[in-house]
Design a protein that fits this description.
The longest helix has 23 residues. Helix 8 packs parallel to helix 12. The protein has an eight-stranded mixed β-sheet, sandwiched between helices. It is globular and about 65 Å long. The chain contains 16 helices and eight strands. Helix 7 links the parallel strand 7 and strand 8. By secondary structure, it is an alpha/beta fold.
Length: about 325
Amino acid sequence: MRVTILGAGTWGTALAILLTENKHEVTIWSALEKEVKELSEHRSEIKNLPGAVLQDSVCVTGDLEVALQRPEMIVFAVASIYVRETAKKIADKIPEGMIIVNVAKGIEEKTLMTLTEVIEDELPKAQVAVLSGPSHAEEVSRKLPTTIVAGAKRKEVAVTIQDVFMTEFFRVYTSSDVIGIELGGSLKNVIALAAGIVDGLGYGDNTKAALMTRGIAEISRLGIKMGGKYETFAGLSGMGDLFVTCTSKHSRNRNAGFLIGQGKSAKEAMEEVNQVVEGVLSAKAALALGKKFEIELPIIEQVNDVLFHDVPAKEAVYQLLVREKTEEHSSCQWQD
């Protein structure tokens, strides 16, 4: 299949390598001239993907006309803040029924839309899907075993994506729960910031386990209220992605949080990580969704306080611990 990837960051590049290895004809586009030049000239020295090699057959371009000449599938791998802008740019070039796969993670702050909803808003004639799960680009580019889930409204679209991406080391499952997959992938980044913060503060395994467990509880409460399925949040794009993002050395969200826990500002942390930190971009939108759907999100609220209201990280953790006493969950009944 002819596949065009919009976005030449680490994830877009790793997927280009994977798809080419899987015998597809791949074009990768970037809006950044410097990025196009570096990727074209240094295919075996890819920034943030040590040891990875972008095959010579991959067309790298900064020209949208070239990138969209004749694709059979388009992958959106631009950072979340550029998804709508990119969709607008290609609106008049997308034929009806084109499969578009979103692999970015985030929530649009102004509209509170998920990224598939943003793409659908700009490209209503396309068949928009999502591919998400615990899948660091650094490991996928090295062919380390990975599992992920393709979500689409129509089964045949999800199966097509499964067939295109699946390899002997990259296993793809299918799901109809697009909203659940999107929310799991975006909200876990905010929780991962918190996980990094507690690491930066020097707290232990107990704290990290509590944070992750209560974090998936927050994600699930909000996600189910918005139409997602419980099984999704217990699966690859929920607990799976949360676990890897909260614990991995590759996680830019966890690493940024670690620096914040050590006393740096959000701006300083992002500059030091030197990559897009989606959790910072999604934190305000996540809290706004909680208010909109009347779901309490205490961890996400405290992350916002640390990021945007100068609340010290230790104080934020303290506020979580001294909240009003409550049950862990309400589904179990007490004996009379």
